[in-house]
From TrEMBL:
<feature type="coiled-coil region">
    <location>
        <begin position="93"/>
        <end position="120"/>
    </location>
</feature>
<comment type="subunit">
    <text>Monomer. Interaction with RNA polymerase subunits RpoF and RpoE is necessary for Tfe stimulatory transcription activity. Able to interact with Tbp and RNA polymerase in the absence of DNA promoter. Interacts both with the preinitiation and elongation complexes.</text>
</comment>
<dbReference type="InterPro" id="IPR017919">
    <property type="entry name" value="TFIIE/TFIIEa_HTH"/>
</dbReference>
<keyword id="KW-0805">Transcription regulation</keyword>
<comment type="similarity">
    <text>Belongs to the TFE family.</text>
</comment>
<dbReference type="InterPro" id="IPR002853">
    <property type="entry name" value="TFIIE_asu"/>
</dbReference>
<dbReference type="InterPro" id="IPR039997">
    <property type="entry name" value="TFE"/>
</dbReference>
<dbReference type="InterPro" id="IPR036390">
    <property type="entry name" value="WH_DNA-bd_sf"/>
</dbReference>
<keyword id="KW-0238">DNA-binding</keyword>
<comment type="function">
    <text>Transcription factor that plays a role in the activation of archaeal genes transcribed by RNA polymerase. Facilitates transcription initiation by enhancing TATA-box recognition by TATA-box-binding protein (Tbp), and transcription factor B (Tfb) and RNA polymerase recruitment. Not absolutely required for transcription in vitro, but particularly important in cases where Tbp or Tfb function is not optimal. It dynamically alters the nucleic acid-binding properties of RNA polymerases by stabilizing the initiation complex and destabilizing elongation complexes.</text>
</comment>
<dbReference type="InterPro" id="IPR024550">
    <property type="entry name" value="TFIIEa/SarR/Rpc3_HTH_dom"/>
</dbReference>
<keyword id="KW-0804">Transcription</keyword>
<dbReference type="GO" id="GO:0006367">
    <property type="term" value="P:transcription initiation at RNA polymerase II promoter"/>
</dbReference>
<feature type="domain" description="HTH TFE/IIEalpha-type">
    <location>
        <begin position="8"/>
        <end position="90"/>
    </location>
</feature>
<dbReference type="Pfam" id="PF02002">
    <property type="entry name" value="TFIIE_alpha"/>
</dbReference>
<dbReference type="InterPro" id="IPR036388">
    <property type="entry name" value="WH-like_DNA-bd_sf"/>
</dbReference>
<keyword id="KW-0175">Coiled coil</keyword>
Length: 172
């Protein structure tokens, strides 16, 4: 898939934005053909060099950019020539979905296996042991802690897990 096609996809735009943030998004959204230096990108995009470098290294850490180093024989300075590798984005997104699935399964089990109490004034949630340690009174405002039903939260996690399992073709 070409850069242009990938970058039109809102899911991929969101993914890149989450990786590099708003300051790095111009770098991620404008991948040049071939190799480019960080200085060239900074000048072309009218960005601070540090913001460009930060975005490039984040893309590198996520296998979305590679670099080649050249040493100037006269000065000894290193020049980094960057290449964007956006063909890895679909695989990276799938890996993220597997990580999300695993984290949601763990959180769902935690929610199912613990009893919670809530201060309705402060909106602070406590596990049973914490609530008991505080005498079932909120340590912030002194209001009584009420038993909290988290079935809606667990059901929402179940729905999200079902959707992820469908998307990833996992057996439930």
């Amino acid at each position: 898939m070409a850069f242009e096609d990938l970058l039109e996809d809102p899911v991929i735009q969101k993914y890149l934005h989450e990786l590099v943030g708003p300051k790095g998004m111009p770098v991620a959204a404008a991948p040049p053909d071939g190799e480019v230096t960080d200085e060239e990108l900074a000048e072309e995009l009218d960005l601070e060099l540090n913001d460009v470098r930060r975005a490039l290294f984040i893309l590198y850490e996520n296998d979305l950019a590679t670099y080649r180093r050249l040493r100037d024989e006269d000065s000894g300075w290193l020049t980094y020539l960057w290449t964007f590798e956006y063909d890895n984005i679909p695989e990276n997104l799938e890996d993220e979905m597997y990580r999300l699935h695993e984290a949601l399964e763990e959180r769902r089990e935690y929610e199912r296996n613990h009893e919670f109490y809530l201060c309705e004034i402060c909106s602070i949630r406590f596990e049973f042991g914490e609530a008991m340690d505080f005498g079932f009174e909120c340590p912030e405002c002194g209001s009584p802690l009420e038993s909290m039903d988290n079935d809606r939260l667990v059901n929402a996690m179940d729905d999200r897990l079902d959707a992820l399992e469908d998307e990833l073709n996992l057996e439930a």
